[in-house]
Amino acid sequence: MVARDPVNIIGAGPAGLIAAIVLRKHGFQVRVFEMSQDVGHRLNGDFQGLENWSSQTDIVELLKSIGIEINFPCAPYYKGIIYAPGMKPVETASDKPVFYLVKRGSMPGTLDVGLKEQAQETGVEILVNHRRDIHPGPAIVGTGPKGADVIAVGMTFETSMEDMAVVALDDDIAPKGYAYLLVNQGYGTMATVLYREFRKSGEYFRKMARFFEARMKMDIRNEKRFGGFGNFFLRDTQVRNGKLYVGESAGFQDCLWGFGMRYSILSGYLAAKSFIDGSDYDELWKRELKPMLETSMINRYLFEKFGDFGYRYMARKLLVSDPCGFLMKHYNHSFMKHLFLHIARRSYVNKVKDESCNHENCACVWCTCERESLAAH
User: Cα(first)–Cα(last) distance of the chain, in Å?
Assistant: First the structure.
């Protein structure tokens, strides 16, 4: 490999690790600084979905095309069950995977550990228990969310249930969000995703559990509770003081439902590309990500406005349409939908007060009541 100036990456999340792998394969010396004792420290072995509907390019093929191996379990899901208020359950199916199921966390078999192993195999130096709030010179910053626009409260468990994906759109169990049940090869995740009423997360968790117990043949063993949060915001530039911001530290998240891993992957790759060929990072992410980010904010605005009617409409459309085609249409820019952008921006309240902050115990991470709510459940 040709010797290059070292690139420092702050944060060992998916965006940072993908940037590290791509840079190393192009001859750069790379150091990753992770403040925790391992990758995936915020996650709990829960299932998450790599969405496969916002682009014609399959997400697995995208990963391979940028030099990322699939060295972690990544199960394609083609069908699922959707519940909406006042409707019978809807069974939906697609010719191509709607999403790929991956496990997140610091244990073996997770996407996080798989990316870490790939990075180390290519020669990336990962320094754990290293905090770098201030770093001189160019760097890539992927330190994760700084506030909570959405929280998830759920459990992981062992089970004899068959593989399945079930989603419930119902404000009684997930205000302005959704609840989900995912099972794969004897392991499951069940969670409620809240965009409102964070203080009542424990109450909504119990309602969600009763909801699925009443409708599915539940078998839950060795359950473990978990909580998580996500953050979305739009900013005109993601380059400050020579540092390129990626993933949720840049606000790159799906504002509608929180399917942001694809955005993290792309942002990490684009940040690496800007180092490799000298291209402008702001131009890259604005071309590849900004239209989807703006559309996701508009989707969030409309989703909240239409309530139960919108939930039923979505369930019916997913029944009679190709799910990937329907979702692709609504996740990408359109002229008519873009007319709502101004009002959606004006209506959206971001929880982060200082988006560049990265200080321990900072008051802007999220409000005390929300932090205590997750800690209690």
Answer: 49
Token representation of residue 119: 């990075």
DSSP 156-223: EEE--PPPEEEEE--TTTSTTSEEEEEEETTEEEEEEEESS-GGGHHHHHHHHHHHHHHHS----EEE
Helix, strand, or coil here: 93?
strand
CA separation, residue 32 to residues 21, 44, 121, 279 (Å)? 11, 22, 14, 22
- Count the helix, strand and coil residues of the chain and give each as a percent rounded to the nearest 5: 35, 20, 40
Which one-letter DSSP state was computed for residue 88? -
The CATH code of the domain that includes 148 is 3.50.50.60
264 is written with which tokens?
């993290």
Neighbouring-strand partners of residue 179? 168, 192
Tokens 């959405």 locate to 150
What is the C-alpha to C-alpha distance for residues 102 and 377, in angstroms, rounded to an integer? 23
* pTM value > 0.85: yes
* 372 alpha carbon, distance to own chain's centre: 22
**Residue 109 included in any domain:** yes
Range with lowest mean pLDDT among 69-78, 183-192, 312-321: 312-321
How many domains are there within the chain? Answer: 1
Query: pLDDT tens for residues 353-366?
Result: 444 444 444 433 33
Domain span including residue 83: 7-294+348-376
How many residues make up the chain in this entry? Answer: 377
- 258-305 pLDDT, tens digit per residue, is 999 999 999 999 999 999 999 999 999 999 999 999 999 999 999 999
Q: In this structure, how many other beta carbons lie within 10 angstroms of the beta carbon of residue 359?
A: 11
